Amino acid sequence: MGNSFGQLFQVTTFGESHGAAVGVVVDGCPPRVRVSLEDIQRDLDRRRPGQSSLTSPRAETDTCQILSGLYDGQTLGTPIALLVPNEDARSKDYSEMERTYRPSHADYTYDAKYGIRDHRGGGRTSARETVGRVAAGAIARQLLCQRAGIEVVTYVVRVKDIEASIDSDRVTSAQVEATPTRCPDPQAAERISRLILEAKEKGDSVGGVVECVARNVPVGLGEPVFDRLEADLAKAVISLPASKGFEIGSGFAGTRLYGSEHNDEFYIDETGRVRTRTNNSGGVQGGISNGENIVLRVGFKPTATILREQKTVDKLGQHTTLTARGRHDPCVLPRAVPMVESMVLLVLADHWLRQQAIAGKQADAESFARP
Amino acid sequence: MGNSFGQLFQVTTFGESHGAAVGVVVDGCPPRVRVSLEDIQRDLDRRRPGQSSLTSPRAETDTCQILSGLYDGQTLGTPIALLVPNEDARSKDYSEMERTYRPSHADYTYDAKYGIRDHRGGGRTSARETVGRVAAGAIARQLLCQRAGIEVVTYVVRVKDIEASIDSDRVTSAQVEATPTRCPDPQAAERISRLILEAKEKGDSVGGVVECVARNVPVGLGEPVFDRLEADLAKAVISLPASKGFEIGSGFAGTRLYGSEHNDEFYIDETGRVRTRTNNSGGVQGGISNGENIVLRVGFKPTATILREQKTVDKLGQHTTLTARGRHDPCVLPRAVPMVESMVLLVLADHWLRQQAIAGKQADAESFARP
Amino acid sequence: MGNSFGQLFQVTTFGESHGAAVGVVVDGCPPRVRVSLEDIQRDLDRRRPGQSSLTSPRAETDTCQILSGLYDGQTLGTPIALLVPNEDARSKDYSEMERTYRPSHADYTYDAKYGIRDHRGGGRTSARETVGRVAAGAIARQLLCQRAGIEVVTYVVRVKDIEASIDSDRVTSAQVEATPTRCPDPQAAERISRLILEAKEKGDSVGGVVECVARNVPVGLGEPVFDRLEADLAKAVISLPASKGFEIGSGFAGTRLYGSEHNDEFYIDETGRVRTRTNNSGGVQGGISNGENIVLRVGFKPTATILREQKTVDKLGQHTTLTARGRHDPCVLPRAVPMVESMVLLVLADHWLRQQAIAGKQADAESFARP
Amino acid sequence: MGNSFGQLFQVTTFGESHGAAVGVVVDGCPPRVRVSLEDIQRDLDRRRPGQSSLTSPRAETDTCQILSGLYDGQTLGTPIALLVPNEDARSKDYSEMERTYRPSHADYTYDAKYGIRDHRGGGRTSARETVGRVAAGAIARQLLCQRAGIEVVTYVVRVKDIEASIDSDRVTSAQVEATPTRCPDPQAAERISRLILEAKEKGDSVGGVVECVARNVPVGLGEPVFDRLEADLAKAVISLPASKGFEIGSGFAGTRLYGSEHNDEFYIDETGRVRTRTNNSGGVQGGISNGENIVLRVGFKPTATILREQKTVDKLGQHTTLTARGRHDPCVLPRAVPMVESMVLLVLADHWLRQQAIAGKQADAESFARP
After folding, report:
1. Fewer Cβ in 10 A, N or C end of chain B?
2. DSSP string across C171-230
3. Is D8 an interface residue toward A (CB < 8 Å)?
4. Inter-chain contact B369–D77, Cβ cutoff 8 Å?
5. B219 touches chain A (CB under 8 A)
6. What is the DSSP letter of D15?
7. Is C158 helix (H, G, I), strand (E, B) or coil?
8. DSSP secondary structure of D289-305
């Protein structure tokens, strides 16, 4: 249970880290969205390990196979199944994990919940599980872009104590991809890169904050009461491995202001649209998008796997120590960027369809069948 | 859409602020849980307006009626419908809201989404909607307490810049209820109380942070991948009006640590249980409860309604100004405490049932039918 | 669990037969559908007991209260809560049912499943539970009629061995309502009426078949694979009390034909539409509506409550006998007509919205907010 | 949408007939159920084409690959992904189908709904889609057998007008598999075999009825109101291609009886269990299993594909004729048997888990983690 996400744009992921494959089934994508293998592979390449010295050296090409749902470069309206075989699975690196619980990992809780666990590479708890999310997000991106003109950009805004300065209204994906840090502030990127490499050398790890902006979102997405847009966004990103916190708009900093400072004044812009002068709301009011940019931040803890001896316990209830081997990231932030982006895309695709259901004007279905 | 929550412990709320009533249907509560009207009313009384000088003076008694699902003081296993009639609805206070959009409220987005809106008292966007959540939470509390011994305590830890010092392992509900602030640190409570009254006098408002701790949660609750326990908790609390941020365990502060500082060392305690020496994980690892206390925090913005003239626009696309009348809270935090607590209870009840489904040992159903 | 129905047009019913009230919450109805209390009451009046000598004499007016979701005669897009208080509940008639299991009723299975039961009037197992379904169906009818021009007519086609002859393409609701039997074939209606009264006199009961036709359904409703339109229709009507069978189109009779006899030949009609010359498919092909009339039939068993002594067992595991008192219908068919109709309306409303989600052309949401 | 089934035992199928593969993801199967590849392949072999002269000669071995969710011969509690590559896809046989609509097939409705269609082999409308259902059903079977001792047997009871005589209380799977007809009445099987071959020779097709019995089902499965056990069973089997009708227990025949003839008298058997002397209820009362055998029947129309010239229309709105080529079954009944059985297994697995959730006694989760 719990491996599906979305009400209308439904995503189901599967796969253990060192099993045969990881993948995803996307059900509910409307027909006739143009999607190419390249569209999917591009995002998978941003997520895959081994892409730079800042990330895990696991040598996965993460080559995507399309099993169903696409025909002639377009979605059919049927389930889209995507598969990425596991290649460079060095399971013996993980033999110790069969009986010893890694601190701040999920080995113990999986054993406790299920009474069985595929310990190889972390099994289902591995960040490798996010392959399916990212592949699905690539499809959501095409839907949102082609049907609604929505654009989502995501980037690193802080690693440990190094803060970047980024204009969420203007930052581009090209700027994000310019360095392996995925921090589009070049000075901060330089310092972050050094910090991560230093942590790596010490066998330690660091965390930080990812920011995501969705631009050109139509007014009206989000379903009060429980499925507020920001609530579904919060769930989406907090379901990512290693995430510890979520903020929208002014976030926790906003809780330190007076209402008179915090409120977003409405005005009519030159095109006649209702706008707000500030965006403390983060693009969402009462759970519904208001047409301003949606801006959210996600905090990620320092990677739990560190190459130092740590005290822990084993399956038999004995105290022991563990020194991680295996390949891992000294900082998840650069690879967390496409993960956060995918989850935001999935939420927006779902809510865009939900709003279509109540506000769309039904096309004459029969007309499809004739020229 | 979006007015239901939970997979197995399913809650559906309804009702506009100035309509006939607000209420909730709870479907999926197991049979034979003892629930009294007093259990429900006690939590509603903590939520209702007019309970102190710190909250809105709207004079609602919020008297709960049980329509179905309870018989002889016990749940039947059938839907439990609970109703709270609206009494003190001064709709004329809100006539201006019919055409003028209050800044940082949902008037505009509701109009844009639905093309129609019950403007009286904010309609469905009013915090009055949370009556149903709190009533449902009271039932979840009985289930969790009677079947699993789980206890949830919630309190204010910060208002604006005033931080309280609270031991989440030991704080009690009685301490929380000792002052109208619901901050169980007496010195901070005193300062918070003054701050709120000052803001009220100035016609302004303040925000802050609520913390919630769930104790005695069994190991194994939470469903990877998307329905991680912390992901469902995040969605639950971010679906509350005025919430802007969510953290679990070390939260955003934890993102500033090294992995070697942040990891929670495992040990075996004197009773033979697997425990962690620190709780940066916040009681959840890999999306599954690990038996430590679950600790989360929710940031609430300063109340959007302030008694000062603000610039805004109206339905006709004209610039205008608005000076709120109506009754409101200068700070939502004291009343947000039972709301957050209810949402956490609903998530735990749902996941406790979900874990029963896979790990429970089915009782001999027939045995119920005979003495 | 199991008290909700529908993916986008979501209905949740509640209420025991002799509790405070029965009712329903409808979540997901689009905004700005015109719905009056009369629209709802009209269908409830067709369902209520005491409407003729053919039905149970329980004297319920079934007066509907609207608690939320409607404003100024239109839906708000928020949950619509409808309530019908229970009035004529003679609970003492049912005291024997507390310990004795009525044959072919749900007393035993409820006791076995839940270990507790509100025995008064059958509690949740009573057909009184369908009040909520019928009230919700009345709202679905307005949506389907106003937005899509869909029309649904339902009627009795057989009681015991008396078969009626009815043209499903042309039969009207007025013809159905012309007699208390709800069989629009006057000769058959006369015979059915006599048969039911004879059964009633003998303290016995009879069953039969209800047919439902949906006309002007757009091509394209229904979601392969599991949510085929006919599959959701089957679930909908088989969830009604006392139903034992479902057929679509040619149904079981069609299984006796050769393929060459059964296939529906396509042709282009004078308006250029794709049509079929026969309708063995019943308006659905591959799970998707094809624009022909949707025609389905539901079999209802003879009412389980009969006024004769029957052998049975009690809660203590003792053999005993039972002679029903209480008020009941000697034949459920006349009152089953609005129940079946409601369930079909709910399915069509849900699938119409689902099709909107993928095929609708999103209206410019902002335009709602300005004149 | 609509490619998932089940609330707790969730199944999602994917794949077009002539795409890369068909398959399924099963999410929600409890951990530590023993499942082998052979268990799955056995059921797939009963479903696959080319198994006898009575079925389509398409030469698919339907070899199943396990991608995830199983480790060391046991379920992990994580999603189980199963894949069957398509091998013998002769797409050119179907080129005519790109523009011509086969009568009583879904070509037209798919085109109308989606505006795009993979016409090769029927794409997603092909019965090949049921591969995923049958593979998932094989897992459900192991769960139900190992945890609850439930046994499901399915067989052909009628083809066209040839009725078999079968004792649902005693019939075995071995008897069913004894002939290619899957009719366990040898005399009827002989006549059915001849009838199918005659129809095949004439290029025609026949339909009939499949019966399914579930034995040793515990009392208490099924969720009133909408998710009655029989309602979910009806949806499950009516979602199969070519199905036209559903009956439970006495079915349509029962609607011709008096209540005094139809009611199932309760008694206490020698072991002290509550039983019924007859089983007109079909093992379900008030939507909940009563411990008697669950008996249901499904009607299947004659195969729509016939090797005769038929009048029809094409995509351009022109009248035309079509003479099917391609490989197909002159009678779906023998292969429908494992399909119906799988759907019944899926429903029972889902409801067994749902009942666990409310009636199970939670095992001490921690105990799993230690010896």
Report:
1. C
2. --HHHHHTSTT--S-HHHHHHHHHHHHHHHHTT--B-EEEEEEEESPPTT--BTTTB-HH
3. yes
4. no
5. yes
6. -
7. strand
8. E-SSPEEEEEEEPPPS-
Which chain D residues are within 8 Å of A81, Cβ to Cβ?
14-15, 21, 23
Which chains form contacts with chain D, at 3 or more CB pairs under 8 Å?
A, B, C
Per-residue DSSP letter, D129: G
Query: Cα B196 vs. chain centroid, distance in angstroms?
Result: 21
- Helix, strand, coil proportions of chain D in percent (round to 5)? 35, 25, 40
Q: Looking at chain B, which residue has its C-alpha nearest residue C117? A: B76
Tens digits of residue pLDDT in A177-225:
999 999 999 999 999 999 999 999 999 999 999 999 999 999 999 999 9
* Contact D28/B at CB under 8 A: yes
- State chain D's mean pLDDT as an integer: 93
Question: Rounded mean pLDDT of chain B?
Answer: 93
Please tell me if residue D332 touches chain A, with a CB cutoff of 8 Å: no
Poorest-pLDDT segment among B81-85, C113-117, C159-163, C361-365? C361-365
Please give the average per-residue pLDDT across A269-280, as a whole number: 97
Whether the CB-CB separation of A59 and A99 falls below 8 Å is answered with no
D194-217: string of b/e by CB count within 10 Å (b at 16+)?
A: ebbeebbeebbbbbbbbbbbbbeb
Distance (Å, rounded) from C-alpha C156 to C-alpha C189?
9
| Higher per-residue confidence, C326 vs B36 | B36
Inspect the interface and report whether the beta carbons of B209 and A252 lie closer than 8 Å. Answer: yes
Residues 6 or more apart whose CB falls under 8 angstroms from that of A128 comprise: A15, A17, A22, A60, A86, A121, A122
Question: Long-range contact list for A174-180, CB < 8 A, 24+ apart?
Answer: A176/A337, A177/A46, A180/A51, A180/A52, A180/A53, A180/A54, A180/A55, A180/A334
Neighboring chain B residues of A103 at a CB cutoff of 8 Å: 263-266, 276
Over 70: is that where the pLDDT of D371 sits? Answer: no
Percent of chain A at pLDDT > 70 equals: 94
Predicted local distance difference test score (pLDDT) of residue A91: 62
Number of residues that make up chain B: 371
Q: What is the mean pLDDT of residues C80-107?
A: 85
User: What sign does the CA torsion over B15, B17, B20, B21 have?
Assistant: positive
Residue owning tokens 């008020």: C327
Nearest to B14 among C68, C114, C317 (CB): C68
* D327: confidence class by pLDDT, cuts 50, 70, 90: low
- ipTM comes to 0.96
**Domain parsing of chain B, residue ranges:** 4-369
- Name the pTM for this structure: 0.96
Q: Domain D4-369 carries which CATH code?
A: 3.60.150.10
Residues of B in contact with D28 (CB under 8 A): 358
Q: Average pLDDT for residues C244-262, to the nearest whole number?
A: 98
DSSP class of residue B293 equals: P
pLDDT at D355 over 90: yes
Q: How far is CA C59 from CA C50, C55, C241, C328, D279, in A?
A: 6, 11, 20, 11, 34
> What is the pLDDT averaged over residues D321-348?
92
Residues of C in contact with D252 (CB under 8 A): 209, 244-245, 247, 252, 299
Query: What per-residue confidence (pLDDT) applies to B91?
Result: 63
Interface test with chain C among B68, B97, B110, by most C beta carbons within 10 Å: B68
Are D180 and D52 in contact by the 8 Å Cβ rule? The answer is yes
Per the CB < 8 Å rule, is B112 touching A219? Answer: yes
- pLDDT tens column, A294-326: 999 999 999 999 999 999 999 999 999 998 776
CA dihedral (B262, B263, B267, B269) positive or negative: positive
The verdict on a CB contact (< 8 Å) between C255 and D300 is: yes
Rounded to an integer, the average pLDDT of D110-129 is 91
Residue of A nearest to B160 (CA): A256
Q: Could you give the percent of chain A with pLDDT greater than 90?
A: 85
